[in-house]
Design a protein that fits this description.
With about 550 residues, this protein is an alpha+beta fold. It has helices at about 50-65, 100-105, 105-115, 165-170, 205-215, 220-235, 255-265, 325-340, 370-375, 460-465, 490-505, 505-510, 520-525, and strands at about 280-285, 295-300, 320-325, 355-360, 390, 395-415, 425-430, 445-455, 480-485, 540-545. Among the domains are: about 210-275, no CATH class; about 280-545, no CATH class. It is about 25% helix and about 15% strand. Residues about 40-65, about 190-195, about 460-465 and about 530-550 have low confidence and may be disordered.
Amino acid sequence: MVYPTPILAPVNTSNGGPDGSLVPDSEISSIALPSQFYSPPLTDTRSSDSNTGIAAEMSKSKDSGSSGSFHQEYIASLRYRNDLPPPDMPPKFLDIPHEGLQRFLTPGFASNLARREEPNIDVDAEGGMPIDLVGIPGLHLGDESAIMAPETPQPIDPADLPLLMTLDQLKNPAPKNANVSFLRRTQYISAGLRAPDGPKVTPIRAKARSADKAKSQDDPMYIKKYIQKGFDIAYPDSRHVGEDTPSRIKGHTPNKIEVEAWAHPVHPDNPKLKPVGFYPLLPDLQGFPDPGGFVQFKFDKAPVQGVSGKRDERMEVAILLPSAPEERVCQEHATKAALHKSNPELYPDPGPIPWDYDLFLPEKRDAAKEVIASLRLSNPDRDSEVLYTHEGTDGTRFHRYERMRTYATSAQTLGNDSKQRDVALTLFDPAEAKEGQQSKQKGAYYYPILGKTRLKPERARTIAQAGLAPTRPKTKEDQVDQIQVVVRDPDEAEVYKRSLHRAAIDPKFGKSLPRLPNLNLLLSRNMLKPTTLTEEKRRLKIAITSQPLQR
C-alpha cells in the first residue's frame, strides 16, 4: 500500500468556520475509537461515584455536541533509580602488622621447632595397628622382628613364578640363532654354531677337556700348587725341586710373563707409578696378646683436643676400662639371645652386650713419654722406677691416670670366628729403625682384629630417650676417678697362652712348644676355658682407687 506524499501549500481561511477553524465542525465526521485505545484514569483512589460521574460525563460529551470528540489522557510509566543510601558508620580497616609471618615460613623454623619441642605422641592400646600386640612373643622386649618383613624372604614356589613375570618377560623372546651372517660384527664362527646349510656340530672332545680343566682347578692340590708358585717366584732359592712330600710340595711352573710381572710390577690403573720398596707379608709371632688378637675402637669425635694442631700423645697409651651394664639390660639381652637360639630365622642375633668404657689418660701431658718407655720391650731400662711419675704412701711408684669421661657403645662386632678377616698392618724396616730396635726383619707385619667397636659420648638425655640405658647413672662412690698403673712382664701362664696362638700359625714352633705350666696356675688365671672381656688379664697390673679427686 502506497501512501500519498503530503504537499504543503498556503491555506485559504475565508471558508473557515465562525470560530476561525479551517474546517467547520459540521463537515468533520465522527471517529469511533476501539476499546484498546482507551486508557483508564491515572489514580485508582477515586470513589465509585466519581468514576460513574466521569463515565457519564464522557458519554455525555460524546453524545452531545456536534463535534463528537471526547477527552483522552496519555499515561507514560517512568523508572527512577532507588539506590541504597551510604551507611551511617562506614567500616574501618585496621593496619595489623604481619612481618612475623616471614619467620614462620622459613625452612629452618620447622627443624628448630622439632629440635626444641619434645614430640608428645600418645600410642593407643593397639600400637597404631588394628592387631593385638599382647600375644606376640618378644615384642615388648624390643624385638619387632615378628611384625616386620623378614630380611631374607622365603623362596617363591615354582608354580607362582609365571604370575610374577614382568611385561618384558611376557614379550616374544628373540630367537637364539637366526642363522643370519650379515649385519654383525666380525667374529670367528666356531663349530658350535649351526651353519646355514649344514647340521649342527657338537664339539664333544673340547667339552670334555673344559670339564676336566674346571675339575682340576677346584682340586685342593691344584690350589696349593698355584699358591706355592707365587712363593717360588718371589723366593727362587727356596724352591722345592724334588718330588712332592707331605711337608713340601712343588709349585706350578711359572711362565715368562709371570716372572716378568714380579720383576717389574706395573700398577693396573696408573702405569706411571713405580714401587719404592718391597715388604714381605709376615705375622708378628711375638705380638699376640692373651685373646689372640686386638679390638679396634673408634670414637665419633676426638676425645681430647690436640695442641697446636697435633694429636695428643697421651692417646697412644690410653686405657679403656670396661664396665658391665645394669642387671635389667643383661636380662633383656639374655631374653633376646634365648629367642634367637630357639628360632634364628624369626629372631635376629642381638649380638654382644653393649659395654660402657671409661677413658683414662695420664695426668700430665708430658708423662706419655715415660709410659711409652715403660711399655717398650726393646728398652733395657723399662723396669726402672725412675720412669714412674708418682709415688704412693707405701713407697711404690706408679703412673697415675685420670678418668676423662664415659663412652657408650654405638655399634660393635665382637666374637668373630674368623680371626684373619680383618687385620692391622704395619711396615717395619730395620734400616729406618732407631738404635736398639733392629730385632725384627724387614716386612709388613699383620695383627688379627677380633672385633670392632664404635664409641660415642654417654649423655643422660640420649640414654633416657632411647629407653634402654646401657648403664645406670653412677654415684660418687661407684665412679672410678683415678687408676694407678704398674708395668710388669707376663708370667708363665700368660706366656703359655700366647704361645698357643703362635702355634696355630707356626707349625715348627708348635712342635717345640714349651712345657705345660702348673695346672693350678692355669685354673687360677682362668686359662682353660673361654674368657670374656672382663676376665682377660692384661700386661698391666692396675690398682683402682675409688676416692673422688680433690679438684
